[in-house]
Design brief:
- It is a single chain.
- With 278 residues, this protein is mainly α.
- It contains nine helices and no strands.
- Helix 3 runs antiparallel to helix 9 and helix 8 packs antiparallel against helix 9.
Length: 278
């Protein structure tokens, strides 16, 4: 119980720190924005603590299948931190901010080709946007997209080469998939494979679809202004993280379906051997 309490407290503090990073690093925060950031950080910290301190699972998936959630959190944490440092470098440049900006510029320019996700983000900017704003948006999009691709590649290696999650022992579907009911909706394998394909397909499409939807909706509602550093950081982080998270979930569901299929094959083989012996 003490270990669970300690782990939940550490996770809650890390969640609060991640949300507060832009306010701590980027200068020029207003009093209202600071208060809102503190409130959101405390709320997210409390919800994380309650979720991981609970004996019964609630809504967070793969709580007992490390390091799935740790990889996702690390990717989001790194993305928010790097984008915050880039925004800080616009008003208070340092060697670190210059280095991150250079890396983001190289990556952004490399990925910024016709119909690429980065190009779609750049095209959402209103006509007549300042060149400096276009450059910082391209840099932030490139760096965020690089972080999402890196975490997906790392998880794929973890699954296909290191055998996640079976290397940690038995996989408990109830604990790790609390919203999934294996007793309804037909065969479990078909449902898992279907959900996996949907998640992977949506993950590949979202980086293209989100900017397109924003561009189409700009004529009906006020478009999001990426000139504000806080808006830029969280918009680019969400744009890169949500699709990567969905693809990782799809890969994980496919892996679980493979484990269930292998378990069934072994059970059938054992039953056949017992019948032959009898």
């Amino acid at each position: 119980m003490i270990a669970r309490l300690y782990g939940a407290a550490i996770r809650g503090l890390l969640m609060a720190l991640m949300i507060a990073i832009p306010a701590l690093i980027v200068p020029g925060m207003t009093a209202d924005a600071t208060q809102a950031t503190v409130l959101i950080a405390l709320l997210a910290s409390f919800l994380t603590f309650v979720e991981y301190n609970s004996i019964s699972p609630s809504i967070v998936e793969f709580c007992d299948a490390a390091p799935f959630n740790r990889l996702r959190f690390a990717a989001l944490f790194a993305t928010v931190f790097m984008l915050s440092m880039i925004c800080k470098g616009q008003v208070d440049p340092t060697l670190t901010t210059k280095a991150l900006t250079s890396v983001g510029t190289i990556v952004g320019n490399s990925i910024d080709f016709p119909y690429s996700p980065v190009r779609m983000v750049v095209l959402t900017l209103p006509a007549g946007t300042d060149y400096e704003v276009v450059e910082i948006v391209r840099t932030a999009a490139g760096l965020a997209y690089l972080a999402s691709l890196s975490v997906m590649a790392a998880f794929l290696v973890l699954v296909r080469i290191l055998g996640w999650p079976s290397r940690k022992g038995a996989f408990n579907v109830w604990v790790n998939l609390p919203m999934f009911d294996p007793t309804t909706g037909g065969d479990v394998l078909n449902r898992l494979n279907r959900d996996a394909r949907i998640n992977i397909a949506c993950g590949f499409l979202l980086p293209f679809a989100i900017p397109a939807v924003v561009k189409l909706a700009a004529d009906l509602i006020n478009p999001i202004s990426l000139e504000n550093p806080q808006t830029l950081i969280w918009t680019m982080s969400a744009w890169a993280f949500l699709p990567a998270s969905m693809i990782m979930r799809g890969i994980a569901l496919q892996r679980i379906a493979e484990m269930i299929r292998d378990q069934r094959k072994r059970a059938y083989a054992t039953a056949e051997n017992e019948l032959q012996v009898a």
